[in-house]
């Protein structure tokens, strides 16, 4: 069974950053460490974003370590910009990402020279098993959309953020957009621009934030998220942590009634929904823009879930307390391109230190 000092799972911002710092410390891709990514192309979750999400619409992409994105056309789709950037980065940095290989499971190793056994699977059905001294998991959230449960059943079309491609798909339909985050807000605007009739539902009133989105604010958000993960709690949804930036454009959309929530759903019906205020709305489509959860099922054999439903993280925000040698990047506090980049560095250093310990322990 091949042995690697470190295995990195996922080649999004977090995994690529970790791989970069492993390489910068002298580890060689394909020899000392391996990067597995389930996607067929570079780009992480960005490679799946919808066509209408142009680069000018995203909040901003932090540079990967050691190579800048450079100027990007705000009218080009964010998907294509990031795919190109990450692809170039992988080549420049010699990261030798293995794709499309999905990590199916990480289990404790029976062998004393390694901590973990990592089973990877190709879409054609081939599998391989590696031993590893440390695992850095940067698998993001895109593979794990969250849809809340409501009583009743809806007879029309339902889809999640993952399945949205372009607003023109919905022309002539009435669409209920559910969710209080930036994706829901962008869908409502795109649909409205395409002449589609919309209704908006949020569980709590929209969390508009018209203060500055400056480094102090960013630090405060990160600290609040870290306080949860260090207590073993599930990270909050992105919008619960950050709020929604109230730009002049969004304020205008609120004023003309587009971005006004009808409140929470009470129940689904065959032709639409009942709202908590007792009103009913008939719709053709429900678009669940209700967020994502961390994609961690490949780590289930390690039993890292806390009773509180989250993963108990150490104060460095990358080490999993109950599984020495396992590091999560892009999780909790580091779930942004900036946070993921920084976490990659911390995790790479910690993984190197953890495997030095293991190597000296095994003599
Ligand atoms: C709609 C939307 C817009 C966003 N806009 C911004 C923004 O403007 N700025 C910002 O900083 N952040 C933004 N974010 C958050 C941003 O996507 C993340 O912070 C960051 O890009 C995530 O990087 P990541 O490496 O953690 O995960 P991902 O980009 O999700 O990468 C994870 C990778 O792991 C792979 N993978 C998953 N499971 C496995 C497995 N079992 N085996 C092998 N590979 C696996 C996936 O295929 C993927 O390639 C946005 C998020 C969403 C949903």
From TrEMBL:
InterPro entries: Auxin_biosynth/cation_transpt, FAD/NAD-bd_sf. GO terms for molecular function: flavin adenine dinucleotide binding; monooxygenase activity. Pfam families: Pyr_redox_3. The keyword Oxidoreductase applies. It comes from the Bacteria. The keyword Oxidoreductase applies. Keywords: Oxidoreductase. This is Oxidoreductase. It comes from Gordonia spumicola.
């Amino acid at each position: 069974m091949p042995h690697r000092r470190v295995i990195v799972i996922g080649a999004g911002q977090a995994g690529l950053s970790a791989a970069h710092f492993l390489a910068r410390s002298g580890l060689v891709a394909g020899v000392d460490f391996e990067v597995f990514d389930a996607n067929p192309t570079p780009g992480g979750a960005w490679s799946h974003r919808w066509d209408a999400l142009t680069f000018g619409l995203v909040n901003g992409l932090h540079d990967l370590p050691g190579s800048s994105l450079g100027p990007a056309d705000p009218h080009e789709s964010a998907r294509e910009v990031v795919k190109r950037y990450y692809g170039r980065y992988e080549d420049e940095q010699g990261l030798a990402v293995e794709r499309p290989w999905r990590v199916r499971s990480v289990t404790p190793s029976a062998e004393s020279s390694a901590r973990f056994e990592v089973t990877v699977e190709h879409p054609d059905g081939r599998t391989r098993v590696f031993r590893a001294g440390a695992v850095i998991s940067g698998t993001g959230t895109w593979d794990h959309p969250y849809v809340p449960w409501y009583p009743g059943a809806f007879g029309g079309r339902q889809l999640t953020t993952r399945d949205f491609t372009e607003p023109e798909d919905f022309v002539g339909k009435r669409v209920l957009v559910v969710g209080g985050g930036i994706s829901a807000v962008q869908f409502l605007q795109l649909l409205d621009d395409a002449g589609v009739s919309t209704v908006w539902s949020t569980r709590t009133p929209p969390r508009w934030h018209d203060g500055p989105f400056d480094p102090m604010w960013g630090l405060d958000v990160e600290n609040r998220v870290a306080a949860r993960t260090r207590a073993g709690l599930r990270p909050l949804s992105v919008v619960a942590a950050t709020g929604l930036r109230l730009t002049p454009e969004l304020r205008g959309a609120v004023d003309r009634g587009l971005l006004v929530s009808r409140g929470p759903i009470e129940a689904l019906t065959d032709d639409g929904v009942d709202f908590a205020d007792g009103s009913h709305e008939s719709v053709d489509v429900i678009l669940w823009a209700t967020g994502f959860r961390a994609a961690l099922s490949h780590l289930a054999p390690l039993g890292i879930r806390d009773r509180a439903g989250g993963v108990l993280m150490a104060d460095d925000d990358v080490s999993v307390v109950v599984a020495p040698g396992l590091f999560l990047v892009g999780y909790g506090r580091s779930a942004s391109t900036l946070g993921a980049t920084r976490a990659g560095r911390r995790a790479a250093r910690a993984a190197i230190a953890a495997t030095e310990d293991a190597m000296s322990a095994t003599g």
